[in-house]
Specification:
It contains no helices and 22 strands. The chain is mainly β. Pfam families: PKD_4.
């Protein structure tokens, strides 16, 4: 659903019988521009953050380079070479430069919101999670209590966004569908490995991916205060096959002796994987 609209930053501009005007609607940083001009046969848009012009009549554009107040100019032209233009100011969401480094310094997560939080109701070691999937990696940040040690984990990853395919877990009955599993210590350069799901009926069937453990990058557990531990880790998208528009995951934490510690999300009759919509990439031209 489109949330905002606009039209009247400047009055209509006319020249040689051309009346130029436009309106716009947006849903976040995705804008749809509607050309209201009359008497013109071609158009040129300067959308405010481009090094080229857009010549679509009614363009759609996603702003991912800049936000805030942006001047958009529409120039309308006729066959006689006459032209007229109008400039309006739009307001786009601020764009944050998010560059996650897996180094145990969590300041680079400050502009990423938590997408799931059990801290008020959950009793398990893992409490809340952030995810960021811009660029080449899927990055994950988890906070928990001091019981969270991640000595061993099973991380189930639904990489294609389809909860009806892959491993269908009874623990998260309202949505699972894992194509991949990481099992082992949640550490960089550990003996852990990724596994690809193999059972077409959704059961427990996995094939180890040789050398894949090198693709898990982890900060290890970092103690934040007397009650809170945190960890961040990163997985190259290339490790996860054909990625859909969203990914989801769930985690089982175990001790080094394979005793169960906790699940995240906690197992209930309505639990599901934590889902994350990957960021839309910038359009290379207007659509």
């Amino acid at each position: 659903m489109f949330l905002n609209c606009g039209s009247d930053d400047e009055s209509l501009n006319s020249n040689g019988g051309i009346v130029v005007d436009f309106s716009f609607t947006n849903d976040g940083n995705l804008f749809e521009f509607t050309n209201l001009s009359e008497g013109a046969t071609s158009y040129r848009w300067d959308l405010g953050d481009l090094s080229f012009y857009c010549e679509k009549e009614n363009p759609t554009y996603r702003y991912t380079k800049i936000g805030g107040e942006i001047n958009v100019t529409l120039t309308a032209m006729n066959d006689a070479g006459e032209e007229s233009h109008i400039t309006k100011t739009i307001s786009a969401p601020e764009v944050y430069n998010i560059d996650i480094e897996i180094d145990g310094d969590f300041d680079d997560w400050k502009n990423v919101e938590f997408i799931y939080d059990e801290s008020a109701s959950g009793s398990g070691s893992m409490q809340k999670i952030k995810m960021y999937g811009g660029g080449d990696n899927l990055n994950v940040y988890i906070e928990g209590n001091t019981l969270m040690q991640m000595e061993l984990v099973d991380i189930y990853i639904n990489s294609d966004g389809d909860s009806s395919t892959g491993f269908l877990s009874w623990q998260w009955p309202e949505g699972s569908g894992a194509e991949y599993l990481f099992e082992g210590p949640l550490l960089s350069n550990s003996w852990g490995a990724f596994y690809q799901h193999t059972d077409p009926n959704g059961g427990w069937g996995w094939s180890a991916l040789a050398g894949s453990g090198a693709n898990m990058y982890s900060s290890g557990i970092v103690n934040l205060d007397a009650e809170t531990n945190a960890i961040e880790f990163s997985i190259p998208k290339t490790q996860l096959g054909a990625i859909g528009s969203s990914v989801s995951l769930a985690i089982s934490e175990l001790t080094i002796g394979w005793a169960a510690v906790a699940t995240f999300p906690e197992v209930t009759s309505t639990s599901s994987f934590v889902s994350y919509d990957l960021p839309e990439e910038s359009y290379t031209s207007c659509q």
